[in-house]
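Below: protein 1.
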Amino acid sequence: MTVSRRALDAALHDGARPAAAVEGGVQRSLLALEELTSNALRHGRLPVEVTVTRTGRSWLLEVGDAAGDDPPTLAADRDPALGGLGLPLVATISAAHGRTADGSRKVVWARVDSTLSEASDAPRDPRPPDARGGRGRGPGP
């Protein structure tokens, strides 16, 4: 996981990021990538695959694992010292987030705007889209 974050960090600081991208967007993308990846490694099944795609003004971060039958769940009413804050954090710092499952694979994704220095102040519902009674916002730009 640390290797993936370092590789992305190096790429985004060595000229691979769009000219309009700001440091705040880079840092939120790195944090979201680390949170999604650590969740997949901790709660999913191997193999874990990570994809980062530039989509206009955003980066689409997708982390897949072999636990397609095990949706991500929030740690409700848990002592924050015990963890469980990753998905709410990703919800707060991303423009959109969600998950898909296809057979034996699950992909949890976040779209982070690369041009904003800070995350939007708009409140986000950190529950997975299926727990909100809808599909949530899609991963597109």
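Below: protein 2.
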Amino acid sequence: MNKNEVYTFLSNMYKDVLLDLNVNKVSQYFSPDYIQVTDGVQSNLNEFLNHLLTLKNIVKSLSQSSFITFYMMRKKEP
């Protein structure tokens, strides 16, 4: 992947999974062997999906900060 492809992939993943909490798109971005460690606690893909479902049920809305948008736009190739 070149820099623009990486930017597009990460931007789409961030929006689809982390902002929209679309659990149906997780498999497009995450390996079945995905492992996440948060505060020393290890979670697998199923645990991550369950976490997203919980968030989807309790979170009214999510948004991306202007700093992240600014930072990501600066990293994109012209």
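The longest helix spans residues 3-19.
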